[in-house]
Design goal:
With about 100 residues, the chain is mainly alpha-helical. Helix content is about 65%, strand content about 5%. The protein has one domain. The protein is built from four helices and two strands, in the order E-H-H-E-H-H. A two-stranded antiparallel sheet has the order 1-2.
Length: about 100
């Protein structure tokens, strides 16, 4: 496997991750530090391409944000938002825990 630091990923391929961040931003009650994580993530996603290591970092941020939103967060979402969150988390899971599939 090539060095992930030098592998570039199109941010268009990370649309599911971005959608999940939007769900969290729109529905979770988070403090300013977590809101800063969301803002920083959006800034990274504004580029056309990012390093694979950055994509994995965004995936980990998403996981942290979901945990910070609380244990009942997912259950309280409307169906469309819940689906977007689940798809984004699946992409995050693949980036973090199954890097050989990249």
């Amino acid at each position: 496997m090539p060095d992930p630091y030098f592998v570039l990923v199109s941010t268009a391929e990370l649309a599911d991750l971005a959608s999940a961040l939007d769900v969290i931003d729109g529905h979770a009650e988070l403090n300013h530090r977590y809101r800063k994580l969301i803002a920083d993530s959006r800034q990274v996603l504004a580029a056309d391409e990012i390093r694979l290591t950055q994509a994995r970092g965004l995936a980990k941020r998403l996981m942290v944000l979901v945990k910070a939103a609380g244990p009942g967060f997912r259950d309280g979402l409307p169906e469309v938002a819940r689906t977007a969150l689940d798809v984004g988390l699946a992409q995050a899971d693949a980036l973090v825990f199954r890097p050989e599939e990249d």
